[in-house]
Amino acid sequence: MSAATPTETLSPPVNQQDSSNHVEPIEAPPELTPKTDSDTTAEKRKREDPDPESSPNKDREREIHPFWKTSLCSYFRRSKGSCSHGDTCRYAHGELELRPRPDNTWDPTSERAKKMARIDEGGGTGKEDRNDCMMTEAFADGEEGGGSSEAGLAKCVVNLPMKWTSDNLRNFLDENGISFKSAKKKKGMVVGFVSFESAEQVNSALKELDGKSIGSKNLKIGDVIQRSFDKKNKVAVPNAQEHDQNTVSVNGTSDIHESSIDTENGEPTDECSAPNNSDSKGRTARDVVTPLAHMPYADQLEHKKKSLTQTLKRLTRNARKACPNGVPLPEWVLKSREIGGLPCKLEGIIESPLVNEYRNKCEFSVGYSLQGKPTVGFLLGNFREGVTAVQEPVDCPNVSRIASRYAAIFQEFLSHSSFPIWNRLNNMGFWRQLTVREGRKPGKSAEVENSDTTVSEVMLMVQVCTTGFDDEKVNDELQKMARDFSSRATAESPCLPLTAIVVQDHKGISNAAPAEAPLHSLPIPRECSDSGVVAPYDGVEARIHDYISNLQFSISPTAFFQVNSLAAEKLYALAGEWAGLGPDTLLFDICCGTGTIGLTLAHRVGMVVGIEMNASAVSDAERNADINGIKNCRFICAKVSLAQFLYLYVFF
Ligand SMILES: C[S@@+](CC[C@H](N)C(=O)[O-])C[C@H]1O[C@@H](n2cnc3c(N)ncnc32)[C@H](O)[C@@H]1O
């Protein structure tokens, strides 16, 4: 089941970097845990029920064999780099060649798996760590990268192993016989920059490198284009060190983009939100966040259905291949043949009650436009691809008018602020992000065609990094910002609701702030209340309220809440219908957030147990049960793992 999120792809838009939107992987049950080398004998044996789509061609088999190169070759390791099977060996000759297993785990003897285990032991999630590594160092600028890009002699190479440094990149180029002028790569990034002496060198490098596989990835080569304001270096920027004359950055409309083609079937996948090479010239925020917006809504639904079908078919194929010999294929895999390879019947995509301006939460990045103007909007691509340019949310149909107005107000404020904009390349600066969260009045879906009139509360969360800035000056600046927001919200016609302004101090370098990043609420100057805008007292906990299935939900600044409240209502109702609930049902709401699913279904079951790792979301869930007089729900703050789940099952 999937509710349609109009115009967006099924994957989250590029701007959605909120940690609260991130779903941590749940521990796999034992039968899904990584296979050991001993399992591979079974894998080699011919399956009784062969995959109908597998090809007799050996090379193709290697390409699609789910365990190909997913374990390190112990012979290769023991004999210090030699293995009689050479290239045909099914095991990986070294960490670089190693691929993840079908269940997304890594060979437990690999350095990567050990590193992840260390991170887990240390309480991190691995993702944070990788993000941090990715951004610890800025792309180096200076002599090497500079001049060549203008002449088109600089290229960026995407999909390089994260752990590579410039030395690894240079060695790799040498080993492949590529002549180049300079090569740079920061550890933790997947992008490297290579400059060449001549067009011939560029051409032969392209021939050799484009599409070449390293581990499980294929290299992509893109142009490096200087941002226009870097070239001119004449635009006044608040912090001169942010935009060094020599800085070479990848233009947001450059040729770099993630693969938009499903490598298995050559058809676009859910992830294909990035336009292709030629389209990406002149890519807009609208293209990036709502790549389906050019289609009529009915076509968008069809497109989503098709891409979901591909994903589900792939799931069946992978499950079939992953099932070891001797273990019977699950019934749903066997039955999938009768329904065109699908694991279950796909009912279709449910329409959203609201097609435009449906998002109740927008996270706007703060950065520079392609012309070097301080901008509040959406990144024009992925930082991993080297894109840092931001564009205003012009024509983005999913963004509400209110959110757009606040982005514009903030952008105007930043153009006069003496505090610097966050620089994603050197991880320095002050202003980082603006999140606009809206709360609605209770009302029926049919009455909400004009979303503006139903919004009664707005919370603004401004993310800054206070490192290195004077506390007093920071406070003055933030007070000034609050005054600006409130007076300009009041001056709008009709005046914009403003319920809370929260400042989040995020000192780290990854995009998503950790749950413990300090938050403080700013008082909203009094005059706003006279114009009908609610102004909380300083120190009062900032929160907004929304409604799903006639229940009120109180939401704290960082807690997750479905971004399309009305579509969520439809989705939850259907989940309840399908679940066959009754008074004897014990309903586990795993990763419950603010408790929305469990609470909306509580009246149809005996008891609800919600589990959620974000502490403030758990207290929101408890508060929400109270507000709505629901007594049969318990919420537990914990990271979900199989062990905990089993314990709870026995305990309750
Ligand atoms: C996409 S939200 C869904 C929340 C809720 N079910 C809803 O529909 O509104 C996912 C939630 O899962 C939580 N979460 C992610 N990984 C978790 C884990 N391993 N254990 C517990 N909670 C987790 C996040 O904090 C977030 O609140």
Description:
This protein has 21 helices and 20 strands. The strands form 6 sheets. The protein has a 7-stranded mixed β-sheet. Strands 3-4-2-7 form a 4-stranded antiparallel β-sheet. Among the domains are: 361-546, OB fold (Dihydrolipoamide Acetyltransferase, E2P) (Beta Barrel), CATH 2.40.50.1070; 558-651, Rossmann fold, CATH 3.40.50.150. The radius of gyration is 26 Å and the shape is globular. The chain is an alpha+beta fold and 652 residues long. Helices cover 30% and strands 15% of the residues. S-adenosylmethionine is lined by residues 20, 23-24, 26, 560, 562, 591-593, 596-597, 611-614, 617, 639-640. Residues 1-22 have a biased composition (Polar residues). Residues 157-221 form the RRM domain.
Task: Compute the separation of the termini in Å.
Answer: 29 Å
The share of residues in helices is 25-40%
Please mark out the parts with pLDDT under 50 across 5 or more consecutive residues, or reply none: 9-61, 119-151, 225-281, 528-539
Tell me the number of helical segments per DSSP (H or I, 4 or more residues long): 21
**Radius of gyration in whole Å, from Cα?**
26 Å
Q: What's the number of extended β-strand segments? A: 20
* CATH fold category name of the domain at 361-546: OB fold (Dihydrolipoamide Acetyltransferase, E2P)
- Examine the secondary-structure arrangement and name the CATH architecture of the domain at 361-546: Beta Barrel
CATH class of the domain at 361-546: Mainly Beta
* Nearest-integer average pLDDT: 74
Overall 3D form = globular
Structural class: alpha+beta
- The share of residues in extended strands comes to 15-25%
Ligands present: S-adenosylmethionine
Strand line-up in the sheet with most strands: 11-10-9-12-13-14-15
The main sheet comes to: 7 strands, mixed
